[in-house]
Every structure is written in C-alpha cells, then in structure tokens.
Amino acid sequence: MSSTTVSYIGKQVENASPGERVDGITLPYLSVEQVRAFRSIFGFLNDKDRDILYLIFVSRKKQKDVQQILDRSQPSLCYDIKRIRRRLRYIFYIHSVFDIFVRFVREKSMYFTPEEMEILTLMFYTSSFTMTAEMMRLSQVRTRYAYNKCLRRMEFLAQRFMDEGKRQEEDEMWEIREIFMSIRENLNAIKRVYRGDSCGLKAVDAGRIAGMQCFRGENPDCDGVHATR
C-alpha cells in the first residue's frame, strides 16, 4: 500500500460518520466505499474480529443485536470492540511506515545477518515472536534475543553515524529503531492466530516470501506495495 493510499485512508477515517458509543467513546460507521478502501487493512484481522467489525461498523447493528447474533456478553463484546480499535490504529501505523521499512531493507541490511533480517522482516509483518519463531524453526528465546540484539545494534549504529557526522543516516536509523520498538510494545497486534487456524500463517508466509525476495534483490520491481496486499 502506497503512502498516498494511507493518507487517503486516514482522511476517510477522520470523515467517517459518528456511530455506536462504547464506554462514552463514539465509534465511526464505515461506508461500503470505505470498506473497499480498507480491504487490505481488514485482511489482517481474524474472522472473529472481522465479524464484529462488519456487524457494528458496517451493518450498523446495535450492540445488543450483535450480542445475540454472536452469543456474546455485553462486557466481552465491549472489550473486543475497544481491542479491535487499538489493533486497527496500530495496523494503520505499520502501513504508514512501510516505505521506511523497505528503505531500511534495501540500504541497511548489510549491518545485520541474513537470519536477523528475516526475523526483523517477519516481526514487521506479524508482530509475533511465536509466529516468527515457528516459521523460522527457532526457539522463542533465540528469536527474542536476536530481535533485542538488533535493537541494540540500531542504537549503536545511530550513535556511530552521529559521531561520523552522517546526520541523514543517523536520523534514518533512529527512525527504523522507533518502528521496531513500537512493534515490541504491540506484540500480536497485527494478526492473532487461534488454535487450529492456519490461514494466518499462510498469509504471513506469503508476505514473508515477498519481503525476503525484496531483501535479497530477487525482485527488482519491488516498490513496497506487494507485501500489504
């Protein structure tokens, strides 16, 4: 997804009509056109969250009706609505910094090992140590250690670039470190995979392949858009 599309989505969210209130917060309704524009974003949600999102924000069902349709209690449904809002806010953020991530992969990968770059790529797509470790056939302990090691190296490189007077490279390294710090603070925010649900892993695996092709230079036409579709 391009930055232009992200900007368009941001404006659409701001212009969405007022909708259901949850604990004093008014949640926006979405039009069919907005749902189409957000399709690649909603694809990161699991089936359970998409059901709630479409029933409340698109079909404009009342909470009490959704409770009956999904056989959910009122406190449980309210919790999920607020959680979905937090997840969508974070997913919008990740989409907005995708070009920065692609630039990092292209220009700064030489400072990291191939395994570290694959861990960073998978964490960017999944925000999950569990899924990243499973897909790379590593232990979670090793995956977390490597990820935190990368964060420390980013800080070291930013300091080194500052000492060398390379202001642009310093700023870019602090910028990418901030992104990966945000990922660590929002673990499992992009796509939760429930027991027996292999769809999420398949989708992430496709993104992983595309991302690593870009990293290895095997896809010269990579423009930073394919991985979000």
Please, could you describe this protein's structure?
The protein folds into two domains: 3-96, no CATH class; 107-228, no CATH class. The protein is built from twelve helices and two strands. Mean pLDDT is 75; it is low at 1-18, 22-27, 194-216 and 220-229. A two-stranded antiparallel ribbon has the order 1-2. With 229 residues, it is mostly helical.
Summed up, what is this model?
It contains 12 helices and 2 strands; from the N terminus they run H-E-E-H-H-H-H-H-H-H-H-H-H-H. With 229 residues, it is mainly α. It starts with a helix and ends in a 13-residue tail after the last helix.
Structural key phrases:
229 residues, mainly alpha, two-stranded antiparallel ribbon, 4% strand, disordered N terminus, disordered C terminus
Specify the structural class.
mainly alpha
State the helical fraction: 55-70%
Shape: elongated
Query: Mind describing the biggest β-sheet?
Result: 2 strands, antiparallel
Distance from first to last alpha carbon: 7 Å
Overall mean pLDDT stands at 75
Radius of gyration: 19 Å
Unreliable segments of 5+ consecutive residues: 1-18, 22-27, 194-216, 220-229
**What string gives the helices and strands in order?**
HEEHHHHHHHHHHH
When the domains are counted, the total is 2
SS summary, helix count: 12
Layout of helices and strands:
Layout: H1 3-15, E1 18-22, E2 25-28, H2 32-37, H3 39-42, H4 47-58, H5 63-70, H6 74-96, H7 98-108, H8 114-126, H9 129-136, H10 140-163, H11 167-185, H12 199-216
Helix pairs in contact: 8-9, 8-12, 9-10, 10-11
